[in-house]
Amino acid sequence: MSGASVAASAVTDPDLRRSIAATLLPGFLGTTLPGWLEARLRDGLGGVCLFGQNIVSPEQLRALTDAIRAANPDAIVAIDEEGGDVTRLYYGSGSPYPGNAVLGRLGDAAYTEQVAQRVGEELRRAGVNLDFAPDIDINSNPDNPVIGVRSFGSSPEVVAEHGAAWTRGLQSAGVAVAAKHFPGHGDTGTDSHLALPVVDLSAAQLRERELVPFRAVIEAGARAVMTSHILLPQLDAALPATLSPAIIEGMLRGELGFGGVVVSDALDMHGASGDRGIPEAAVLALAAGCDLLCIGTENTDEQLAAIEAAIAAAVSSGRLAPSRVAEASARVLTLARSAAATAAAAAAAEHRKNVVDTPSDTTDFLWSTAAEKDIAAAERAFDVSAYARGWLEEYAGGSYSVVRIDTVANIAVGTAPWGPFSDVEADPASPWAAAFTANPAVLFTEGDHPDLVLAAQSPVLVIGKDNHRHAFARAAIDRLRAERERVLVVDMGWPSDDRAYADIATFGASRLVGRALLELLGRGS
């Protein structure tokens, strides 16, 4: 018996069965729409979440989203496109956008809104109607392993201002935002993909800091908010935020007055489903007030059948009110239909400007005239020490050894190319790339013998991400500084406050930021 047949047999009420299906947002493996997923969309599945593994080109992506809409015109097509280190549109090449931390440091909300509008235009042309962005977590912990440069900054006011600007910009292009991760994932030292972070803050403390950006994006018209899988024991000692009625219904809807769609972060993450499984997490998320359940990245027909059966059983036993499921599905449908209308209006406005609403040509976008401004802006956000300026004056444009320190990226970022390495891979013929790659290079990863870095001869350029958070990276840099002269360390993540392992801090590692670093290295301070 197929997964769809199992689900059908488990739910005898056709209205309830369709309502349950409308709350589910799975991912899938592949670049074309699988038959089982097409069948579920025809039966009312809420939508599909796309990841980097699903995308190979703008044309292929548009064909995929067209197939999704052919099966269900009211489908949500969602994506994690933050316009920086976390990118899905440019998962194979690195993003041509600066990223949130750079935007926050620039302090130009109008520019943030422009960048978000451009991201939104690309998404709309690709057929996406919901973006899991902006990330409005306040990165108050520099050791945060999962937020970092995804945040606009460590100040509530900065994050609020730029989160609201991003919301206006993206939604003006006809794509709904899902601001994340409520009520705030910035003050954690644990990755909720792998464990359950604990944030021991009171409601009063949250109101003073973490909730400030969420109030701002709600006031700016955010259509959706994504929850976080973090435990806040002073609010709910038993359940993470995604599964907590006190946090979703009490704080997000009751206190902040949010009336839009509440989206769960992926339920396959350990912070949500670790010891209880995805089906039970889905039941608890709906009961808590979530409307649209992001399931994961590589879901199957059988998994969705098990989730639907668990939700139906919870309704049958009285654990979950059928009215709650109906309310959730109605909100999802309202979002999908309103997103379609706003996307059509935005597309019509572009047509009036003689801009064709077709998939973007991503090949040359980064080197357009507009990108020159973006590259210069990214460099202005760099924190360059006096030592680094002296090093650049002496060695920029010349010969030096390059040590690339590769740390394991968090799951949200994935394996997308990063920094100057993404740019030289994508455009090896550029003069900046040619000068950079002419230098001898060493790749150093965790587990390599420490002596490997000593293959680099003075002067040495070290490039890594979040250098201070990784003991092996600190040890390698310390070894180089002791054994070699004139070592310049670049951190393309979120540096420690003392900048001990960041002579240059770029606050991002998108391809755009990598190009800005290459230009600085080629030109000097």
Characterize the structure shown.
The structure is a single chain. This protein has 525 residues and is α/β, with parallel strands linked by helices. 44% of the residues lie in helices and 10% in strands. It has helices spanning 3-10, 14-22, 35-42, 58-71, 100-106, 109-126, 156-172, 203-208, 211-219, 245-255, 270-273, 278-288, 301-317, 322-352, 369-380, 386-395, 419-426, 431-437, 471-483, 511-523; strands at residues 24-25, 47-50, 76-79, 130-131, 176-182, 224-227, 261-264, 292-294, 383-384, 401-406, 441-445, 460-464, 487-491, 504-505. It has an eight-stranded parallel beta sheet. The protein has a six-stranded mixed beta sheet with strand order 9-14-13-12-10-11. Strand 6, helix 10 and strand 7 (261-264) form a beta-alpha-beta unit. Helix 2 (14-22) crosses helix 14 (322-352). The protein starts with a helix and ends with a helix. The relative contact order is 0.13.
Strand content: 5-15%
Determine the oligomeric state from the structure.
single chain
* Percent in helix: 40-55%
Alpha carbon gap, first and last residue? 67 Å
From the alpha carbons, calculate the radius of gyration and give it in angstroms.
Answer: 23 Å
Quote the average pLDDT.
92
Strand order of the largest sheet: 1-8-7-6-5-4-3-2
Based on DSSP secondary structure assignment, what is the total number of beta strands?
14
Largest sheet: 8 strands, parallel
Q: Which regions contain 5 or more consecutive residues with pLDDT less than 50?
A: 1-9, 360-369
Q: Please report the number of helical segments.
A: 20
Shape: globular
Q: Class by helix and strand content?
A: alpha/beta
